[in-house]
Amino acid sequence: VNNGSIESALNSGTSVTVTTASAGSAGGNITVSANINKTAGADANLTLNANQSITLGGNVNITSSTGALNITLAASQSGTGSVSLTGSNVLSTNGGVLNISATDTGSANAITLGTGLAVQVGSGSALISGTANSGTGVVMQYGAGNFGLNTSGSGNVVIQGASTSGTGMLQGEERVLEKVDDNTQVGWVGG
Questions:
Q1: Nearest-5° Cα angle at 92, 88 to 93
Q2: What is the pLDDT of residue 63?
Q3: Which residues contact 59 (CB under 8 A, 6 or more apart)?
Q4: Pick from 69, 63, 147: nearest CA to 111
């Protein structure tokens, strides 16, 4: 699917859903390899439903500068898969809702949030929820970049991870949240 087609629909206030299925040896993964920028129009939804996994390429952003953009990244429609946001990615909803979910029934991590990831929901909200079998539910990496969460007003972010025999949530060795303003509400749930 061409990112320009997705942008045109979103800019006209039309919601977009991309859903994959497994076919032959293909697992039904989604890789976003180009920016998706909503720059006009009314509020809209962008939903990515992957049969298995969702990956945002390095330096690939999904953003809105006009109208709220509700973003859903839902992996594991087949029962197992992951979400990987490990590049210098920006997810900006302009007051919309961000939902990221994945379940991995094998030994992999369900959701990996990289050091260069910036989540910006403004007065909106975010729920990031990962469940793993023997891997980690949600991994928040720490390194040379900054993993950032940004809200304003009543905006909030909840990150929850669970694992049957692994780790629910795993943070980097140092402080994960570098820049969080006074209005930000962050909930951490791990088990």
A1: 155
A2: 97
A3: 87, 88, 89
A4: 147
81: left (phi over 0), alpha (psi -120 to 50) or beta: left
Phi, psi of 151 (to 5 degrees): -130, 170
Token pair for residue 97?
């809702």
Higher confidence at residue 124 or residue 143? 124
pTM of the model: 0.88
Best CA proximity match to 156, nearest among 183, 175, 138: 183
Whether the pLDDT of residue 78 is over 50: the answer is yes
Which of 153, 50, 38 lies closest to 110, judged by CA? 50
Q: What is the pLDDT of residue 182?
A: 45
Q: CA 73, CA 160: separation in Å to the nearest integer? A: 15
Q: In what order do the strands lie in the sheet with 136-140?
A: 30-32, 54-56, 83-85, 111-113, 136-140, 167-171
User: Listing from the earlier edge strand, what are the strands of the sheet with 36-38?
Assistant: 36-38, 62-64, 90-92, 118-122, 148-151
Q: What average pLDDT does this structure show over 1-26?
A: 92
Q: What is the pLDDT of residues 127-136, one digit of tens each?
A: 999 999 999 9
